[in-house]
Structure formats: structure tokens, C-alpha cells
Amino acid sequence: MSLVIRDIAIEPNLVLAPMEGVTDVIFRRLVRRIGGCGLTVTEFIAAEGLKRNVKKVLEMAEFDPDESPLSIQIYGRTPASMAEGAKIVQDLGADIVDLNMGCPSKKVCAHSGGSALMKEPELARDIVRAMRAAVDIPFTVKMRSGWDHDHKNAPEIAYMCQEEGAEMVAVHWRTRTDKYGGVRELDTLRAVVDKLSIPVVANGDIVDAASALDTMAQTGAAGLMIGRGAIRNPWVFREIEAAMKGEPIPEIDFLERKRVLLGYLEDIRDRFHSEKGTLGRFKKISGYFTKGVPYGSELRQGIFHSQEIGEAIDVVESFFDGLPDRLGPRHAPFVPETFKADSFQPQVAK
Ligand SMILES: Cc1cc2nc3c(=O)[nH]c(=O)nc-3n(C[C@H](O)[C@H](O)[C@H](O)COP(=O)(O)O)c2cc1C
User: Fold this and answer.
1) The CATH number of 3-245 is which of 3.30.565.10, 3.90.380.10, 3.20.20.70, 3.30.70.20?
2) Cα-to-centroid distance, 16 and ligand 1 (Å)
3) Is residue 304 within 8 Å of 283, Cβ to Cβ?
4) Nearest CA-CA partner of 282 in 229, 292, 274
5) Which of 41, 162, 176, 280 could form a disulfide with 18 if both were Cys (CB 3.0 to 4.6 A apart)?
6) How many CA atoms lie within 13 A of 21 on its CB side?
7) β-pairing, 8-10 with 223-226?
């Protein structure tokens, strides 16, 4: 399967999911350096904030000069502000602008944004139409399979998006009421793929080569979007890429994990310029990143209790340096175990 959004080839056909508080320029850089990801997407950005030039909001839209293809995702409730937001995204230099129609958070839904739009097809159409008319760059939409189990209307909404000029849709198999739980059901995604002629990207609980190949086979999607699996294991893209090519899965040793974690810390320190901001973000990301690492809870505790950046660095170094001895001579390279979605609740879905 190949994924081409208008004339932008997404190679490989693996997309980093937008994640608020996670997929900022630094995390996306980490993923791009590791490789295997064909398209990065920013966290959701309020169109209203872009319009009003809010510094914090503009920072969320920052990207590296060599970051391409890049999609900037926006959310909002009025067609006019979403159109304006899309235009700003285009002017900032993004390759693609994406509409958030999937976020379940109360903050976003309360303003009729995110997944609430799936309950209001007329408003959704107006927003899609306005955004499409505002920009020349490719325009895509990310949604859930529906609002709830009685309203799995992603096929109809996605079709409307296509007819209004969207050039790719990404669909998370959960409904809004599933939040981040629910029982995996890919039939609705399959129905979207069957109904549309534009590319469809499948999303939800893809965490390793096996879940990726299974999702691809069950849905026939043109590409896959990976969120939490990439925070826990940013090598997941390379693993899936290898599996799709029928190549052996690359093995990641602990030294590489240590190098990437400390490199991430350096990068956020440069960005946040504050001990508190750096430590806060590092604690959050390393909490995900160290899940599945042997004795990982010790590492998480150590990082969590660090008062200073230097202390956190010492904790990471001594933990990873001591790991081979603790595991014995036959210690295996890191192979992530499949995680349960329920144990991985995002902070955004209050
Ligand atoms: C911490 C976190 C923040 C998220 N923020 C966004 C967001 O800004 N925009 C969006 O469309 N979806 C957001 N999502 C949903 C993800 O993009 C994705 O659809 C969902 O996590 C399912 O994919 P996964 O199982 O691969 O994580 C967020 C998810 C998480 C875990």
C-alpha cells in the first residue's frame, strides 16, 4: 500500500499521530531522527489562538526547517476562524493542514470542536468547506469512528469531507464515548476505506509490527497513524517499516535508549530555558518512554523525584549503565511488550 496526499508521497506510509503536550517540535525531531515515520503532525492548535497571535499557540506550530512533510492540525468551532486558522497554517509553511474532528476532551468539545463535530454534520460541513476554500495546500481531516456506538457515522462524515475537497482522512477506531478504552473494532474503518476514493489512514492501538500488519489487513487502509505506541517506543516506525518490507525487526539496545532519552532532555532544555519547564516535560515523556523497560518503575520513580535536571541525568545514566549487570549476560535488547490501551490514559482526555 502507498500513501500519497495529492502529490505528497508519505514514505513509508506511517504517520505520527497528533498528541497534545507531546508532539511538539522536539518530540517530532526525536521521531524523525530515529526514522521510519513518513509524516509528522503537530499537536492540536486552537485556530482562535493563531488568529490572535498568541505567543504560546504560535510556539505549538513551530517546526524545524528540514521537517517536511509536516501537517499542522487545528481545531475550533466557527467556519470563519477555522478558515483563517488554515490560512495562517499555510502561510507558516506547513505542507498540509489538518482538521481535528476526533478530540474527545471536554475543553475542545465544549466549543463544538473535536469529535463534537461528528454530532453536528452541518457545522462540520461548513467548517470543512471554509477551510478547503481558504488554502491551496492539501487539507486532511482526523476523526473517530463516531460519537458513540449508536452513531458510528465516520463513513458518512468522511465521505462528506471527501466531497468537500479533503484529500485524506485519518480515522481512530474508537468512538468519542470510548474515550481511550473500548473494544477494538475495525469494521467501521473498513467501511470508510470502501466508501472513499481518497486515502484513509487507520489509527488506534497500533503498537508494534503485529498490530500494524493486522490493522492494515483488516482495514485495507493506505497508511497507519501511531500515537501512544510512539511515545513508549519511538522505534516503532522502523519496526513496522521493516515488517512491511518483510525484513527483520531492528533490535534496540539499552545504550541507544539511554542516548535517545538524554538527547531528548538536552533538546527540551534548549527549548524551555527553565529548569521547571524542562523537568516537567521530561517527567511526563519519560513516564511513557520507560514503560516496558525492565525495572522501569525504579527509573520512573528516580526521574519523578529529581529536583534538578542534573539529578535526572544521573538517574538515567546510572540506571541504564547498571542494567546489563542486573539482567545478566543473556540480556535481550529492548523489545516492547504490547501494552493495554486502558493502562495508558492520556492526560488530555479528562
Ligand atoms: C496525550 C495525547 C494527546 C492527544 N492529543 C491529540 C490532538 O492534539 N489531536 C488529535 O487529533 N488527537 C489527539 N490524541 C489522539 C491521538 O492522536 C490518537 O488518535 C489516539 O491516541 C489513538 O491512537 P493510539 O492508540 O496510536 O495512541 C491524543 C492522544 C494522546 C494520548
Assistant:
1) 3.20.20.70
2) 10
3) yes
4) 274
5) 41
6) 13
7) unpaired
User: Sorting pLDDT into bands at 50, 70 and 90, what band is 107?
Assistant: low
pTM for the model: 0.92
The Cα–Cα gap between 134 and 327 comes to 57
Indicate which atom in ligand 1 lies nearest the CA of residue 43. 8
Take residue 128 and report the three cell numbers written for it. 470543512
| Residue pointed to by grid coordinates 488554502 | 135
Query: Model confidence over 248-307: pLDDT tens digits?
Result: 998 888 889 999 999 999 999 998 889 999 999 999 999 888 888 899 999 999 999 999
Distance CA 169, CA 209 (A): 22
Query: Closest Cα to atom 18, ligand 1: which residue?
Result: 227
Domain ranges of the chain: 3-245, 254-327
How confident is the model over 81-94, as pLDDT tens digits?
Answer: 999 999 999 999 99
Distance CA 130, CA 82 (A): 7
Closest atom of ligand 1 to CA, residue 226? 26
Residue 30 CA neighbour count, 13 Å, CB half:
27
Asked if 171 contacts 200 with a C-beta cutoff of 8 angstroms, the reply is yes
* Residue pair 5/140 in contact by the 8 Å Cβ criterion: yes
- Residue in the block written with cell 515523556: 285
The DSSP code for 16 is E
